[in-house]
Amino acid sequence: MKIAVCLKLVPSTTADIRPAADGKSLQLAGVETVVNPYDEYALEAALKLRETFPGSTIMALTAGGDDATKVVLHAFSLGVDAVTQIKAPNVSARGAALAIASALKEIAPDIVLCGRQAIDDDQWEFPGALGELLNAPHVTAVFSLTVSPDAKKIVCKRRFNRDDQTLEAELPAVVTCDKGLNDPRAATLKGRLDAKKKQPAVKTPADLGLDEAALIPALRVEKYSPPPQKAPGKSISLPPAEAARELVNWLRNEAKVI
């Protein structure tokens, strides 16, 4: 099998991110970045598929600025066979899908694995756009993935309306991976050292036949603003019986929830 996995660099979930002074961008200087956590499930799924189907190869792809080198090293440290790094700083999800779809058409993978969503914008836009551009079935947010022995079909499960939904699709297909699909492995020291000796295939959008106009974002952010501050909580410092009466009185007469 030819397995492709798409990875993105995002701010850490614990990072303190604030709007810039102009309100049109974010203050990201010095912010810790990590491989998108949902993409980690996709990468682990790729590694498991290669173990199940000996002789399979994994290509990781990422689109972004120079800082995407961190994604390259991470992918190599876990043993992927090749990495394509597309130099496209500040590219939108749609632009990334265009660039990666162009790169994937050259290798014609049997399955493309992505994270369910990127945690920086939560748009869910990239995988769907990629599936459309590749003219391939697109199965979202799977927590179970099985490939048929002949590698022609997949059976996936996802959570749907408080229940599980089972879907089948012919390969090639685009599959997005959700929490619960697997437990992503950590890179070994040897893997990290070996990763530094490997080089990705570096491409620009022009190398892939895309001009600047094709990468102009279709979505424009007008303003970033922090969420409104929450009202301070109510504290009741009374003996238990009196506190209970005071709480009921507050819930009934002020909060009006009972």
Characterization of this structure:
This protein has helices spanning 37-52, 69-77, 93-107, 126-134, 189-195, 240-253, and strands at residues 2-6, 9-11, 18-19, 26-27, 33-35, 57-64, 82-87, 111-115, 138-147, 153-160, 163-170, 173-177, 201-203. The chain is of the alpha/beta class and 258 residues long. It folds into 2 domains: 2-215, Rossmann fold (3-Layer(aba) Sandwich), CATH 3.40.50.620; 233-258, no CATH class. The protein has a 9-stranded mixed beta sheet, with helices on both faces. Strand 10 (153-160) and strand 11 (163-170) form a beta hairpin.
With strands numbered from the N-terminus, the spatial order across the biggest sheet is 11-10-9-12-8-1-6-7-13
Helix content estimate: 25-40%
CATH architecture of the largest domain: 3-Layer(aba) Sandwich
Question: Can you identify the CATH class of the largest domain?
Answer: Alpha Beta
Number of E-type strands: 13
